[in-house]
Amino acid sequence: MNDVIHPRSAREMMSGWLYLPRFVDKIRLSLAGRLHSDYQQNFATRGFDAQWLKAAGLESEAFIEFVRPTITDGQVADWVRAHVHRPAEQAAFNQWILNYGSEEDPELRARLALRKEQSGLAHRTDITTFVDYIDADEGRLALV
Question: Distance between CA atoms of 56 and 86, rounded to whole angstroms?
Fold first, then answer.
């Protein structure tokens, strides 16, 4: 039995922000003691989590404490719409996350290739970004 609860895709949007629903899922899983170890290394302080917080202008601890008592995504979405007004950063982040890994950065492309290989996805030429990789690794992209 697979004990991993996957957060939503980074492609999902909340209050105009890509990735936010995934981050909210990770926060709620962490608070419930159910965040799988695969996600804990980068939780809230590194990776896409940290990049979202930076773009939104928020501190990880404060945002986690805001999410803690919420029950619905609507509560989070309403708060973000009311308190996070960074349209330029939002647009830049949304574009960046969808393209991360497709840039001509040899080190980044090598890291994506390594992740694909480690996951048995090296043959997947349709995986050209880290968001593609995450969706394939978590079973959201159809097998080709």
Answer: 7
